[in-house]
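Archive entry. Fields below.
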Amino acid sequence: MNTKLIFTIAKSLLVARWRQTLVAAIGVTFSIAMFITLLGFMTGLNDLLDGLILNRTPHIKLYNELKSTPNQPIAISDKFKNNYNFIHSLKPSGTRAEIYNYGAIIDALKNDNRVFGVAPKLVAQVFYNVGAIDVTGVINGIDVEAENKLFYFQDYITSGKFIDLKNTPNSIILGKGLADKMLANIGDVVQVTTPKGDRIQLKVVGYFQSGLQDFDKTQSYASLTTAQKLLGKPSNYVTDIQIKLTDMSLAPLVGKEYAKVFNLDAEDIQTANSQFETGSSVRSIISYAVGITLLVVAGFGIYNILNMMIYEKMDSIAILKATGFSGKDVNFIFISIALTIGFFGGLAGLISGFGLSMVIDNVPFNTAALPTIKTYPINYNPKFYVIGIIFSLITTYFAGLFPARKASKIDPVVIIRGK
Amino acid sequence: MSIVLQAKGISKNFHDPVTIQVLKDVSFEINRGEFVSVIGKSGCGKSTLLYILSTMDTDYEGDLLIDGVAMRNKKESELALVRNEKIGFVFQFHYLLNEFSVLRNVMLPGLKLGKYTEQEVEHRAMEKLRVLGIDNEAHKLANQLSGGQKQRVAIARALINDPLIIMGDEPTGNLDKKNSKIVFDIFNELAHEFKQTLLIVTHDNEFAQSTDRIIEMEDGRIIRM
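PREDICTED_STRUCTURE:
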């Protein structure tokens, strides 16, 4: 088959009907542009919302669950070995909240090449004293630098510097909601009461805003040392070990392994936050569905235009067949017309989709819940562009398939004798 | 003298709306270099016969041999190749592609055959146009030409692959006296100077009288040849 000749003929047919061609191509351009923009915007939002939780959640959390021991004395006793024992009203007792020998565990974790980073954490229940009123809340004792590296801590600090938490002794970073409630400004000293009744004064060095208001109303951060001092515990007292893996999908598996090796409880991110993945995938499906619908509509446009072209060019097709072009050649001519429309329309669609994304990316978007976000989020994943162009080629191919088959089946005798 | 085209007992029926036999056991041969005309009244089946001989119509009984090769049981693409290489066709209407220049129109079957490079095909096309006296119009678009000129371009297109045989279906049917004369003279020149085999269907008896051989048909049969 003489491909070059076929393309020349396809090109001249296209150029001869350039207005219709343009309309068909604009249809494809529009749908691809919308597809790209929609997916970019949706995914950008998804990433933003997921990031709210996922960025701040460790892939694996190691801790001691408050629970009764599974090895009850009666089960160990030889006397009742052959019995099936029922124990009622079992209560846990003497469970230690801290992780035993955490330094050694962290060293072991850091040598595991599946682990991206490790940050110890101490969760302390406290009462914030606002005048005569006590507000219940939580102080998270953190390793400031590790926390920032793994969980982008500084992104959520709206005033003050995160590193002051480490550099200033007895300092605290309050949630914005909590600070408003306590009327505490930066530099002020606030008082907290521990569950054991000790009162401690802490200096406010910053505010954080996580985007989750309930969270900001109860949580605050202090350095690990400050939190240990607060609880009157030694410097090896840590309640959680937070782990980030290089590959998040390994979390459930690795979590189970660590739980066994270190004799601790492990919670993986997939179990803790499964609802976010569901939300993301549903939003993606909606975007794809809308994009594909637009493309199918454009495909019908191409189908119509090619059909029209075939009726108009009946004589030309007949003479091509009479002078030695086979049905396959004619088929190929019309398929390449359709694909040309698809390719160039799609390419223009990618460019305008990119442009439209850029416009949205620069539209101001200020919300109290998301302090670090200034404009609408857009995801420029090249994957969408590849999918876009492939979709446009596939749709136009199918749109061209039936008209092309019809053209290839034209009987030249019928056309020529009909004159 | 070698046989270019051989029809052996060709019959054809039309089935719509009722079955009518339009060709009844038609057999004849055409030798190389012959200028043959087929005449007969309207509806006698002469055009139907021509389209079967041109391999475009494959719904018939009997056998057709072109250059000694049987056309029955050939695939559609193989028949397309035969038409491209061995048959030049001139219709009543010119059927030029308006999107292309005159030269390009002539070149298309040559490019499709792919026997020569594009430059060679172009050179050959110019040569054919020169022989037919329309080389000045080569770069015009097909629809800018007069009816007579268009038909000459169609003849040049039929000639581009040096076909074994040129078939014509009322090639002068749409032309005035003067242009008919020109086309006829061209056919005569092709037949006698270039020894081109020609098979022309016509109802113009004057035209037919001056050909080498006349096949006359009536009611789907050959009554004189």
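CURATOR_NOTE: Chain B touches chain A through 30 residues (CB under 8 Å).
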